[in-house]
Design a protein that fits this description.
It comes from Leptospira bourretii. The chain is α+β, with helices and mostly antiparallel strands. The chain has 2 helices and 9 strands. The strands form 2 sheets. The chain has a 7-stranded mixed beta sheet, with helices on one face. Strands 7-8 form a two-stranded antiparallel sheet. The protein is globular and about 35 Å long.
Amino acid sequence: MDFFENYLEKIINFAKSDERFTAICCAGSGITEELDKYSDLDIVLITENNVVFPPDEMKQFADQIGDLLVGFTGGHVGESRLLICLYNSPLLHVDLKFIRMQDFHDRVENPKILFYLCSKENPFPLIRMNRRRIYAMRLVPYLVVI
């Protein structure tokens, strides 16, 4: 749906201009692209290991993305890194999860990578290898190498 794509494009552009972010991923139904008009967006914003977003900065970031009606942390479900957002025009529920790179490997699903910034010092930390498989988690169009 166009409004999902427009929102994702906007969040990618904002995150690309903020050097604290190293990657943006889509989780939930966005992984399989089975979004319908009732779907929410689950976005994982990955930062450098030394960057932690306090709730006021999380909300400030969310406010830049669109017409934010309300945003509150997921502290009530034990996830203080989560900001639950409701946007207007169009009405859209978005979960923004701000995590550090070192915490990315502790997850329940393999998200779709929407944007990834790699450098010589840390070329591909999101890609994990084991003896039988290479997990690349569907690298996508916004790969930026510095």
